[in-house]
Each structure stands twice: as structure tokens, then as C-alpha cells.
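Worked Example 4.2. Consider the chain below.
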Amino acid sequence: MKILHLSKFYPPDPGGLEHVVATLAEGGAAAGHDVRVVCAQGSRWKGQAAKEPVVTDRKGVTVVRAPAYGVLWSQPVAPRYLLAARWKCDVLYIHRPHPMADLAAATLERGNTVVFHHSDVQRQRRARVIPYGVDTERFTVDPTGARPEVFDSFAPGPVGFFVGRLVSYKGLDVMLRAMVGTSLCTVITGDGPVRETLEQDIASLGLKGQVVLTGSIPDADLPRYHQAADYFVLPSNSPAEMFGIVMAEAMACGRPVVSTLLTTGVREVNQDGVTGL
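Applying the procedure from the previous section yields the following C-alpha cells:
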């Protein structure tokens, strides 16, 4: 069977949506299907967009990365995306919100179509909910795993962990202000447009001994970071955080979660007093 995924970005670009797409694509490839993902060249290719789509094999999945010339309203500007998506398939997955994928899908000869709406779903209260899953062979409780050195850089005590894109709606600035006057420590992993601002906040709030920004880490190392932490924290303060798959990954590693009480799927993933706070 030929399976095509139309996504904004794809690993190694970070993000919950990207990891959901990768899990689905790699699972299909492992089951013996011919799987292709069309995406835009993301942040790791910033300023280095190729003139033609870049085709690579990643864990049995054919990944076609269309040249991107920036991001407008959270959407990659990638005109060659439409051409890259022209591949006859039996099953088409559209990962929304992504207008370019919708436009490409309208021109495709395809069989069955599956639509994943990863954000902005606010009104469909009666729709059937199928939550995302995680690879529990990869994310698992492993007390024998090698502990990343960054977790040993703090004074004795519990250490929290955050991983994700460093963007405003993640609420990291709020979390930093909440840490002032406490002995809490946190490892923040990821990169994004607010990193410089966060570094300034850490210095001005006197949190240099309590917070470490690691930048991006290899995807293969992520389970070790979850396993080394005492808890996971997700301080997102906008409905743009619709699910928070990183929380499910932390739970698979046996870690409780501290999250905000958003009116989205976040409150269903982390249940107060059951899986965290």
C-alpha cells in the first residue's frame, strides 16, 4: 500500500506534530507499506533552502522536503510543495492546520483520506476523540540508563524538565517568574525565537543556578532526559497547545507532570491528582 503524509515539517525538526507524523509514518513503513512524507524544509534549514526538493530515506520513510523561504502566520512559504506532493497513493494523511497541504490534496489522485487536526479545534465538542499515542518501547521506565550530565549541575533536589519549541505560547516566561524565591531547578531543551529573551530573563531573575537551556538535543537522547528528570513541566498558556504529546512521552517514562489548566486536550492528558498537578 502507498501511504502519503502531508505535513508542515518533519524530524529532525522538533515539535509534537512532527513526532506524531513520524510515529505514524515509521509505523506504516515498519508494517511493510511504501510511505512518503512531504514537508517543508524547517528551522534547521533556515537560510539554506535548496532550489529543488531534497529527498532522503529516514527509517524506511521517503521524506521529501520542499524548499522553504520563510514562515508566514506559522505556515511555511514553500511553493514547490505542490509539485512535491504529486504522488499517487492509496491513503492520504493531511496534517492540519496546513493550507498548502489542503491545496495540494485537491490536486491529487488518491484513495482514502485521513485528516488530523492538530490545533485550533475549539467547537467540535461532540466529535469522537482519538488521542495520540507514543512509542512505549522507546519511551519507557529505564532506571539503568545513562544520566545526561546537565542534570548533575544543580544542587541536590528534584529537577524538572521541559522540551519543545521555544515560542511565546509555551509560557516559559511565566514559569521562570514562578520559580523566583524557590529552590526549584529545571532543564529546558529546545530552540526557537524566544530563546534569547529567556536567557535574559534567567539572568535578570537570578535563576542562573536553577535553570539550564540546553538548546536542541539529538532526538535519540530525548528518552534519557525524560528518565533523568523528577517531573515534566508544560507551562503553555494558550489554546495553541491542543494536546501536549510530550506529556504522554514523560508519563511513558514514569514521570509525573505539572501543567497548566488549559481548555484543550491538555487537561485530559494530565489529570490533576492522577497523573500530575
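The mean pLDDT is 85. Residues 96 and 229 are 32 Å apart (CA to CA). Compare this with Example 4.1 before moving on.
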